[in-house]
Amino acid sequence: xxxxxxxxxxxxxxxxxxxxxxxxxxxxxxxxxxxxxxxxxxxxxxxxxxxxxxxxxxxxxxxxxxxxxxxxxxxxxxxxxxxxxxxxxxxxxxxxxxxxxxxxxxxxxxxxxxxxxxxxxxxxxxxxxxxxxxxxxxxxxxxxxxxxxxxxxxxxxxxxxxxxxxxxxxxxxxxxxxxxxxxxxxxxxxxxxxxxxxxxxxxxxxxxxxxxxxxxxxxxxxxxxxxxxxxxxxxxxxxxxxxxxxxxxxxxxxxxxxxxxxxxxxxxxxxxxxxxxxxxxxxxxxxxxxxxxxxxxxxxxxxxxxxxxxxxxxxxxxxxxxxxxxxxxxxxxxxxxxxxxxxxxxxxxxxxxxxxxxxxxxxxxxxxxxxxxxxxxxxxxxxxxxxx
Length: 388
Hints:
alpha/beta, TIM Barrel, Sulfite Reductase Hemoprotein, domain 1, eight-stranded parallel sheet, 12 helices, 38% helix
């Protein structure tokens, strides 16, 4: 099938700011992203040559606008680019207007079963709707959603999950295979095209990491030009979910597949954003739209030589630095003893090496002064602010 371009490709690629330790260039371990067209989600560009936006999803009752607004603002603070909210009923859909007016990042309405919830969400001013081809209904329903989205100038994400594939596809392929997932996505995209709608993003997800990877690869091979939202679904808690997501997303990103992503975790959505930022930074793709900047924290695993409460200190520093927005790439080291501590601290832009109830502070490779344990976090954050 032939897919039309939904908008002009953006030229902005993001320039990496020079930092105090930014002499090395990226090693090119990932392939250049496959060419896709650009789709705008409330001004955040997905696809083309744009940086990869990070997404997350609230776990509040969307009808409770106050709690949902509060959580989206927390996501904004840690660097989330796009927030998705569940819309299970009309009360949730009608709350979206107040939510949209109170937050600073684009909002995506997640719709299942009832196309009328998509229509109400669009009326309330959301920046994108996500529909599932396995449960949204027939062509007439899809056309109404497409017409409403076109009138408001917002894109539609076709979200395919292995757990909700159409029965006929399951029978055709003998289960939830990569081919079944891709056919589901492209048939829905084709239906939207037949309705005259082309501003589409596709996501294909499964709980099985390698099924997800195979399906996303297969979609990329079709060369439709449609941007891909990548991630694992129902991946698990902070440990299993991070491991599964990292394996799958690494495989796809290093092959140049993926225009926006979410690390799905059971728990605090802010942890999803932190994990995604670290993944993109490690792959030297940049945390979200910043194109390469941000604060990277390294810390030792602790051992019997550690004589400060390093776990508490590292957790507090991590909690605070993840909210810092900067175009500069800055490395902060929190080390517990004198074995590797001084060496690692010297390699960082800012670091501490612990001793008995105190630590030596390093800045740009040079020792500065000793700090009492009780003052370590505040001193480190004060010095970090000076580097920004």
